[in-house]
Each structure stands twice: as structure tokens, then as C-alpha cells.
Amino acid sequence: MAAVSGKVIQHVLVAHCCQQDRKLSTQYRKDCCIPYRHKLLPYIRGKLAWTDISTMQLRTFSKFNRGIVYCNAAPSATIIPSVDKGVFLKLQNGSDIRGVAVYGVEGEPVTLTEPVTEAIAAAFAAWLLDRKKPDPSKRLKVSIGHDSRISAQKLQDAVSRGLAGAGVDVIQYGLASTPAMFNSTLTKSEDFLCPVDGSIMITASHLPYNRNGFKFFTDAGGLGKVDIKDILERAADIYKNFTDEGLRDAERKAAESVKRVDYMTVYTSDLVAAVRKAAGNVERPLEGFHIVVDAGNGAGGFFAGKVLEPLGAITSGSQFLEPDGLFPNHIPNPEDKEAMRAITRAVLDNKADLGIIFDTDVDRSAAVDFSGRELNRNRLIALMSAIVLEEHPGTTIVTDSVTSDGLTTFIEKKLGGRHHRFKRGYKNVIDEAIRLNSVGEESHLAIETSGHGALKENHWLDDGAYLMVKLLNKLASAKASGVGGGSKVLTDLVDGLEEPGVAVELRLKIDQNHSDLKGGSFREYGEAVLQHLANVVNSDPKLQKAPVNYEGVRVSGYGGWFLLRLSLHDPVLPLNIEAPSNDDAVKLGLAVLAAVNEFKALDTSALNKFVQV
Ligand SMILES: O=P(O)(O)OC[C@H]1O[C@H](O)[C@H](O)[C@@H](O)[C@@H]1O
Which co-factors does it depend on (predicted)? Predict the structure, then answer.
């Protein structure tokens, strides 16, 4: 517990206005809300400073706001509420930290407050100091970047205070991509204060606008689950011991020592150099290509102006390049159907050769060919496998668990590689590819249907932009060898990939408060559902369990397959079904339904609906 002085007002107001923004016109958002939000209502540790000008601001908002504006004026000294270790631990999301960073969504209280963030950053610094054990004369350097979220600035400031207070040097990159942050631990450049010893990306990837979170990197890659738990435990202890004096000291140290560097310039020029090199050191190898980019108002807008244009491509018709943390156009996620429809429309309307789409922090990507054919999910994996297997014949391609049977046939029969279908989760596939190499099985590509992908040649960096660079290399080399312009060369590479007639993903929720859980965790309950399903499948002659499987229950039957597994993070059992026809898919769905029906805490309504179609 610690007292923080200053006259403050809870920042419910801004959050409420953010919600209103979505309903109001773009013009209002640009003209009225954004310029004022930062200028007139500075945040002070999770609160808004209540200044004279803020009163005017309140009036401006009220004019447009048809709902209630909540302003909880606080006394001149507020207490930082105590936060249990359990609350800190709940912020873990696999190998990331995720929480709610702004008010505005009913039932979603803010969990990633500024003091909590400050404690997490201080904990990362302590973790890093333990790992690196620097010579006492040397200070560690940590870079911080963020995506386009509306909470980015306040969290960046809190992270800076946490790091500076813990005695490490802080370098802010501003708007950046997740892969660029990892890259900053590898880049060698004194001018850009690289390599840094550690890096923090502030992002919640494609999640809604009110969320935010952190990804951490060292030169060994992204931190894993065990390290994240360690950091959150340390953070809870640090938080408990916060004092007003300590917080002020951190604030002072951050104000004195934070440096700012335009690191994205280094990162983008590396991407440009990679394409030029692959094209035989041609300066503008994409001359004549028309490529549209959809950044979904995330951090990926740089790809059009800083990568494609210097390489000679025309990028007119690119959309949603400007950062907007309310994501007013579509969810920035290549797995999202509406997002894929948006980039497909842009390709067709502009008669472009290729479309490229990124998620908010640019670690996921997908493409669309000249004819409007989506190159995402299994097709993107097939395409990347074709490119990588040309360079490394026979290599193993590691993918997530929801990949299709057709993809295995394509990789193994057509391309002559090995398909190692592993678990869901980008970190899982990357770690598995690294492990295979360490035990003597060569693997050059780890990739998920979500659009995450990493190559051995690129330090196993999970980088959506680099995946797209590999496609650009292919376009440039096809043009140079006279095969032709356009993106047909990419379309041809996935020729022969068998596609299912029907492919669905249904997400079955587990009600964590249901008495059927008998006080156990949703994971235990989910495991029990899976075990029961596996037993039922064993006694059904029409169904065969996959002989090798690393996650959930994967079963073949009726010419198709299904996979029921536990979500990596949520109390959900995602069910993927692929089949030649809808009838076959329904038969598979009915088999699952019959087996799971007795589990009353499992919400099967999505499956019920599917089998009734
Ligand atoms: O298990 P799910 O709920 O389907 O989520 C799985 C996904 O979670 C996160 O978004 C990870 O970044 C992805 O790598 C992973 O594929």
C-alpha cells in the first residue's frame, strides 16, 4: 500500500469516451477526441489529472456523449490498492502477459494498472539482472516498444519508471512491431544503442482495444511460461513494498535517463536489404508490382512506405495503415474472416498483384493473390513450405495441431518434406523446431495456421513481416528470371494442395462456476472431457484416433477429421472439423456431441447449432 498525492480523477471518463468513439464518426474521433485526450488529460499513475482545461474537455466530450459521464473525483492523496499475488499470476497468458488496461467494457475491470505495470517492469529488470549478472560497472539496457493501442503511452511510461527505478537503462522505440523488439537484442549498432540486453513489447496482439499486455525478449528469444510466472511472482512482491518515495524516485530516474531511438529504421532497412540481396543486389526488385497492405490500424503500416516502396513496388490502395487503437475498421488479425475479406476487396478493387495483411503487432501475417485467393491458414503454410523446401530439400516443417490432412499430403508427397504436426501456440512450434534441430532432425520452418511463423535463417524470430519478405523474394526472382510479373508464381506454388469441402472451428466454453466442476479447475474438467471422448472413439469402428498426436483428441472418419483440445489460455475446448461435405462434417460433429453431452458445464450450443444445419 502506498499513498500517491495530487488531485486526480478516475479515468473512467476517457474510457467511456473511447467506447463512444466507436459509435461516432471518424471525423469526430480525429478532430475532437484524439488531440485532446493526450494533451488535456495527462495520466498520473492510472488517474487523470484534473486541470482547468480538463473541465473544458469534459464539456466537449459531454456534447457528443449521449450516455452518462462518470467522474470520480478523488481526494488529494489516494491509496494504491493492494493486489494479491493471485491477481498478478492471473495476468499470465502462456508466454505473454495480458490484462485489461482501460475502462470502458462492462464487467472488465482494469487489471493492468500503472502501478501493476511498474512492478512487472521492475520484476523483469530483476530477472534480467539475475540472468545476465553484469559486471557492476556495466548497466543493462532494455528497449521498449508498443503497438497502436490507446493505453500504449501510459503503459510505456509505467514500464520506463519500473525499469529505471530498478537500475537499468531504458530506450524507448515508440510505435514498433513485436519482431523488431526481439531483433533489437541481436542488432549490432552503437548508433542505435544495440544490442540491448532485454526488450519489452507492449501489446495485446489482436485482442480488443481495452486490453494490453507485454512480451519479453532476450537474445535467446521470447521468454517462456516458467520465466513469465517467475516475473509475476517477483512483481507481486515488489508491488507489496511500493512506497510513495520509491515511486517518486523511479519517476525521477525515468525522467532523467530514458533515451529515444528510431529503431524501426534499422529493422525496416534490414528487411529491405534482405529482399535486395535475394534478388541479386538489385536496388528496386519489385518495380512493376502493385502490392496493397492492410495494417488494420495496428503497428504494421510501415511495411508499405518503408519496405515495399523503397523496393520499387506501387502501394496505392493500401488501407488502415495509420495507427488507431480503437481498430475502427476490422480486427487486425489474419485469422479473422472479415479482415481477410477487407484485404481481398482491396486487392480486387485496385487490381493489385498481391495483398498483405498483418495483425496489430506484426507477428502474424497472410497474403491474397491477384485473383483474390486468400493465402492464409493451411495455404500460407503450404506456400511457405514450398519456398523453404526448395531451399532445404527434405527439411521438416513444424506446424500447430489444427493443420489439415491435405497439408500433410502436400508437404510429404508433393514437396518431399516431413510434416511434424505439433501443438497450438507459436512458442510451442518454434521451441519444437529448435529442439528437433538439437537432436539432429533438420527443420527450417515453424509455422501456425494463425499466421505466426519463424525461420531458422532468421534466428527463429516469430515475424509476420519476414514471412512476407520471403514471398516478395519469390516475386522478385520470378520476375528476374522472366517467369513473369504478378503473383501467379505464388498461386502455382500451392497448386495440388487438397482443400476440404468444409472447415469449421467451434469454441465450446466451460462454465467455471458450474457445480459439475466440483471445485476443480477448468483444465481438469476439460481433460476429463477429452479422456471420455478418447474412450468413446476407441469403441466406434467408424472413427480412428490419429496414431501420432501431441494435443487433444484428433480423430479421422467420414473422409475427414476432427480435433478437440483445450485452448492454450481460455476455459474453452476448441473443436476443429474438416470434411469433404457438410453431411460428413455433421456426422463428425454428432460423434463429438454424443460423447460430450453428459458434461453439463460444457456449453455445446455452437455444436448443437452446427449439427442441426
Ligand atoms: O488455444 P487457442 O485459444 O486457440 O489460442 C491459441 C493461440 O493463442 C495465442 O493467440 C497465440 O499467440 C497463438 O500462437 C495461439 O495459436
Answer: Mg(2+)
Residues 535 and 601 grouped into a single domain: yes
Domain boundary among 195, 229, 261: 261
- pTM of the predicted model as reported, rounded to 2 decimal places: 0.88
CA-proximal residue: ligand 1, atom 2 (nearest):
567
Q: Is 424 in the pocket of ligand 1 (CB under 6 A)?
A: yes
> Is the ipTM, as predicted for this complex, more than 0.95?
yes
CATH of the domain at 113: 3.40.120.10
Mean pLDDT per 10-residue segment, the chain (613 residues): 37 41 41 42 42 36 44 49 95 96 95 98 98 95 98 98 97 98 97 98 96 97 96 98 94 96 98 95 96 98 98 98 98 96 98 98 98 98 98 98 98 98 97 98 98 97 98 94 86 97 98 95 97 97 97 98 95 98 98 97 98 85
- CB of residue 448 inside a 6 A radius of ligand 1: yes
Q: What angle do CA 579, 581, 584 make, to 5 degrees?
A: 65
Same domain, 256 and 276: no
Mutate to test the pocket of ligand 1, among 376, 428, 565, 568 (most ligand atoms within 8 A of CB): 568
Q: To which residue does cell 475479406 refer?
A: 341
Of 30, 52, 79, the residue at which a domain comes to its end is 79
Q: Residue 571 and residue 91: Cα distance in Å, rounded?
A: 15
Q: Can the peptide bond before residue 195 be classed as cis, meaning omega within 30 degrees of 0?
A: yes
120 and 71 part of one domain: no
CA of 118 to the centre of ligand 1 (A): 26
**Ligand 1 site, residue 574, Cβ cutoff 6 A:** yes
Q: Are 438 and 524 contained in the same domain?
A: no
Residue 55 to residue 61: CA distance in whole angstroms? 10
CA of 568 to the centre of ligand 1 (A): 6
Which residues span the domain enclosing 92?
81-261
